[in-house]
Amino acid sequence: MMKFFINTCLVFSCLVANLFGYVDLDKYPSDFVLDLKKIDIPGHPDAFNPSIVRWEGSLLMSFREVSKPCFPAIPSASESSIGLVWLDDDFNPISDAYMLDFGSAISRAEDPRLLVVGNDLCIVYSNNTEEVATDCGFCMWIAKLLFYQDEFYLYDNWKLAYLDGEQHLKREKNWVPFDFNGRLCLSYRISPHKVFFTMYHSEICYTLSESNTPVKWKWGELRGGTPAIDINGRYLSIFHSNIEIATTHSEGKVMPHYFMGAYLFSNQPPFEITHISSRPIIAKGFYSGEQYPYYWRPTQVVFPCGILAKGNNIWITYGRQDHEIWVAKLDRVKLLMSLSPVLSEK
Question: Which one of 84, 86, 192, 230 counts the least CB within 10 Å of its CB?
Answer without folding.
Answer: 230
